[in-house]
Amino acid sequence: MIKPDRSAPAPLTPILHLLKKFSGGCMKSLLLIVAVILIPGCITAPKTPDEFKQGVKQGRGMTKQVTLDINRKFSDVFSSVRSGCDACFNISNTKVFTQGATGRIEPNSLRSYSYLVGNKNGETVITQDGNLMLVTEISGTKDSSIITIYGMSFAWDTVFSAIESWARGNRIKCPF
After folding, report:
1. Residue 39: pLDDT band by 50, 70, 90 thresholds?
2. In this structure, is residue 75 part of a structural domain?
3. Helix, strand, coil proportions of the chain in percent (round to 5)?
4. Which domain holds residue 21?
């Protein structure tokens, strides 16, 4: 019978030694770095407007929600928001990225979709390159409407302002 050589270190000994060495503040930093790198890979992008709205309501990073009371009837608000979004967010172009002497060209597209959900409810969805970026819910009565905008907070403030302006009946002016 062959007896194991107990004088040789076990295969995990160097790893355990490193873990002991980094226990305390360094270990916490190391775990935080690993979490920041690994966790985003586990998060999937929302596929439906309802999933997107739920993520914003839960406080998903870099998103916001704005609710407005509009003193206009539902049909006028829905029509104005749909017209503005159709005019401003159905575009295709290319983005050019340069880095030193190299570069790349990528397609860029914005799309707007508006649809009624019953008699007094509607939604407008804006996608960029197929990814949901903004959802606007509009509901109302005969004389007033409530509009809730769910969207990206970073660099989309002008879009929120434009949608509010159109909902209030102002002239269509594209935010970019």
Report:
1. very low
2. yes
3. 35, 35, 30
4. 13-42
Tokens for 75?
């049909």
172 belongs to a structural domain: no
Global pTM exceeds 0.85:
no
What six digits make up the tokens of 49? 């407007």
Is residue 18 pLDDT above 80, yes or no? no
- 128 touches 136 (CB < 8 A): no
- Structural element, H or E, at residue 17: helix 13-21
CB 175 within 8 A of CB 112: no
Q: How many CB atoms lie within 10 A of CB 17?
A: 11
Give yes or no: residues 33 and 82 share one domain: no
Phi-psi region of 59 (alpha: psi -120 to 50; beta: other; left: phi over 0): left
Task: Give the number of other Cβ atoms within 10 Å of residue 80's Cβ.
Answer: 22
For 109-170, the DSSP string reads EEEEEEEE-SSSEEEEEEEETTEEEEEEEEEE-SS-EEEEEEEE-TT-HHHHHHHHHHHTTP
Look up residue 158 and give its two tokens. Answer: 């002008």
| C-beta atoms surrounding 135 within 10 Å | 24
